[in-house]
Write a structure and sequence with these properties.
Structural class: mainly alpha
Distance between the termini: 46 Å
Number of strands: 3
CATH class of the largest domain: Mainly Alpha
Number of domains: 2
Largest sheet: 3 strands, antiparallel
Number of helices: 10
Length: 223
């Protein structure tokens, strides 16, 4: 993997290759690192994704658009995309980070990809950065259920039932086991009209409710 191959994947050839050099340089190596480019790239990325979601989902309210953006523009998504680009192979790291496999660390990969977006913006302007971002994100979004992205299972179950004009589920604690500092809660999620009852366990009542709701939602959507 070399920088030319990266540029081919990005669909952008740098007229100022020193920008890409800086984007790939971690602060553990020297003072000419990528943190300022990361700051810039984060803003560019948020703007591009916000614009894309606004245009692609014209009926979604502001709250849902914000939820989608926050669940697309985060360390998990960025590091996954960076791995697909094999960006870690090109990172310039200090000795300590190299020895500790920093090229695999999600935070370093995510930051570096944002820095690359910032470098593309400075090199080619907003239109070039938009093409690069969407070239990576549109296939990613296509593989994602945007209607459920970022929602917890209690919310998903509630929306499923409300959409069918059914009563909301009832959550009942059926058991609490263990010492006070290490309790395990068992909760039942009951949907009377559907004759459905599922159970979930967790270290808190809330976690157990989520587990029970997940089981119920999985059963209902599998039907």
């Amino acid at each position: 993997m070399d920088r030319d191959a990266l540029c081919c994947q990005l669909g952008h050839v740098f007229s100022q290759p020193q920008l890409l050099q800086r984007a790939l340089t971690h602060r553990s190596l020297n003072q000419a690192h990528n943190e300022r480019l990361e700051f810039l790239g984060d803003s560019v990325l948020n703007c591009v994704i916000a614009k894309h979601l606004y245009e692609a989902y014209p009926t979604l309210p502001e709250g849902d658009l914000s939820r989608l953006r926050s669940n697309l523009v985060n360390q998990q998504s960025l590091s996954l995309l960076a791995q697909q680009l094999r960006l870690g192979e090109l990172l310039l790291l200090g000795e300590g980070e190299r020895k500790s496999a920093g090229f695999r660390r999600p935070s370093i990969l995510a930051d570096a990809l944002e820095a690359v977006f910032g470098a593309v913006f400075l090199d080619g302007g907003f239109a070039a950065a938009e093409r690069v971002v969407l070239g990576l994100y549109v296939p990613f979004i296509a593989r994602t259920d945007v209607q459920t992205l970022g929602k917890d299972h209690k919310t998903l179950l509630q929306e499923y039932l409300q959409g069918r004009k059914l009563a909301l589920p009832k959550y009942t604690v059926t058991a609490v086991q263990g010492e006070a500092h290490a309790q395990v809660f068992r909760v039942e999620c009951g949907i009377e009209l559907l004759h459905l009852a599922t159970c979930g366990e967790g270290a808190s009542r809330r976690a157990a409710e989520q587990a029970a709701a997940e089981a119920a939602y999985s059963q209902l959507t599998a039907l």
